[in-house]
Structures
1.
Amino acid sequence: MQLVLATNNEDKIKEIKHLLDDLPITILTRDDFLEFPDVEETGETLEDNALLKAKAIFEFTDIPALADDTGLEVDALNGAPGVYSARFAGDNVTYKDNNLKLIKELQDIPDDKRTAQFRCVMALAWSEDNIEVVNGIVEGVIANELKGDKGFGYDPLFYYPPSQKRFSEMTTEEKNIISHRGKALQEIRTVIINKLNNLL
Ligand code: IMP
């Protein structure tokens, strides 16, 4: 069985491959294709965008496609940046730009009100009309300065109290055990294993 990752984000590819690598499937990425569409995220929810990306890449490759759409939902900002997490500080910005904007938006918020969660929605398109959707959530606290050099995106600000560490201070293995993406991927593993068993 082949599975194509419907993302252009190298950081996500690394984490996803890490958790699916031991399955008896061939994981393909954009690098395995001469051309690969850049699917515009025009949906209003994470689920809309995950479905959009999985469908578009399945249609382009004719191979089962796995998409991930993730948002950081900050309680003091009423759930923002949410579906707009990649564009929080504007179009074509860096992870650092988004992090600095988040620090600024939360500058007057006291420690006990800086709670947030990452929400990851994954869609696995087996065909155009057979798409499985799963979710993963992890709760944490937004710090007020950047720290750590691992992970990506908002990880340098995302403190996970049970580990007393930020996601940016964890290896891929550690992060995958507890993260939003790791939880969603555990469900995706079950979906894939069931599919493989049905094919036998
Ligand atoms: P999207 O799912 O490609 O729309 O990504 C949304 C944005 O959320 C990314 O640009 C990152 O800044 C951020 N993001 C997604 N996943 C993670 C994660 O695991 N840790 C930290 N930030 C993340």
2.
Amino acid sequence: MQLTNIGVIKELFERHGFSFTKSLGQNFLINPTVCPKIAEMGGCESGVCALEIGTGVGVLTQELARRCDKVVAVEIDTGLKPILEETLAEFDNVEVVFADVMETDLKSLIAEKFGDSEVVVCANLPYYITSPVIMRVLEEKLPVKAMTVMVQKEAADRICAAPGTRDCGALSCGVSYYSEPKMLFKVNRGSFMPAPNVDSAVIRLDIKSDNGLNVTDEKLFFRIIRSAFSQRRKQIINPLSGELGIAKPELAGLFADSGIKQTARAEELTLKDYAALCASISNRNK
Ligand code: SAM
């Protein structure tokens, strides 16, 4: 069944009485070249298992199932159930879990369904939960090798911006802390049904086993980063002083100890700089 054929999709929808829910980010892929590329560039192959988030009619699920040992997909919309039963019928290595991914214990799901196998995450993410899903996979340190996801183009640019460069933000710092992000390819808005108002891009995040930063207090590290970017045009010493309750003169000394100039702005610091600052602040009363 050609799931990128508009006629086929419309016929499926009519027969099963399905209609799109815009608020769930239901823009389904109809460009036949995209899903095979996501699966291949996402590392789907024999010996690998894939976790998908958001199946739609199963267009990407099929490509993952063709290449991987096993696929588990989390989909919130139970209205898609009869459609998926039909579109995925030929695959005995796919299981769809109908649940909200944000309410799902992904660590347990991976352990239960995949055991010790190598796991990759591949998805065309619903735009309204792009960052929370990515950060959950990273922060919960899920045992996955890589995450290859389609997101809105602007989000992809922000996520892939290197810390210490003009376009970076708290999200790119978080992503780079846990992974190596890479922009794979752009997907124009006409590749979806219905077509969204913006273009998309596929990115791949390779999870780092060790980022070499030796951060001992991650909570403080990310608090510093969030505070720094909360007023990105300002010198970070100002929001940080308020956030941490440390007077500016003392904080200036800690900046100097970390080799950071007092006038630095959030986008000028690399992750190494943030890690050094975090260590100085954390050790100040020791
Ligand atoms: N993979 C399909 C494709 O590429 O055509 C569908 C992608 S569509 C952008 C996003 C999918 O995620 C939809 O099927 C939607 O119902 C599902 N979804 C939205 N919110 C979700 C959530 N919180 N948990 C799980 N799935 C969700």
